[in-house]
Amino acid sequence: MQKKWLGLALLAALQLTSCANRFEPFVGITSGKNRMYAAPVEAIEYNYENMDGGSIGGGCIPGTPGVDDYEVGKMRYGGGNTCGAAALRAKWTPGMTMHISWELLPYPGWQARGLDLPGVNVDQKEERIIDSYNEYYSTDIPLPPPPSAGDDFGKVANITVHFLPCNQIFITYGTIEEGQQREYWKQFAESKKLCTPRPSIKSMADYRKNKAKLDAIKAERKTIPQVILPRYIKQLEAEGKLPVSSQK
Description:
Blueprint: H1 2-16, E1 27-28, E2 36-45, E3 50-56, E4 59-61, E5 77-89, E6 97-105, E7 114-117, E8 120-122, H2 124-131, E9 135-142, E10 159-163, E11 169-173, H3 182-192, H4 204-221, H5 230-238
Parallel strand pairs: 2-10
Antiparallel strand pairs: 1-2, 2-5, 3-4, 3-6, 6-9, 7-8, 10-11
């Protein structure tokens, strides 16, 4: 049955490709008691690392480059496209989660040197070293209730995945609150305290100088919780702001 939902979600995603530069409301892919939507997915990156794509709920997370080094903490970058849509139940209920996975390119300014040889573009040894520092993450993330929409996902426009500095993530939706970013920057500040800042790596010389630190940072990142959201769900619960569906 799960394969059926995912297949329907992919079909709906194909139907969304005509709206490449804007989000449409969630598309219904089933009806009745177990009604589901195909939800467009957006990604926002707060750090200079490149998020090289991923998946959520059977749909695609668009690859999203990071901001420039000197803009970290001042701006965020990202958006959405129609590379795929996540399958989502129509009604929010407490405890809802989605499985998410993604790839991170932590040193996007570090490129293998080019070679002037027939059929060879870059130094393969250097490229393998760079690729060895790519990071892969996956987790089951709680879905918060959609603000301004009660428990009806049909009243929001998209799922937005926020990627914070220390491989942490949280979820919002395309509602009126999406433009109110003050709380998001508080989460950014909280997240960046959890890990060692990455050194700037632009060349193999930088790599050789910082290799021990790069290895230690990669090991450290594996121990950091990947979801920042549960604390905020508990806060909403304490404030009595979690809506309860009227349809059981």
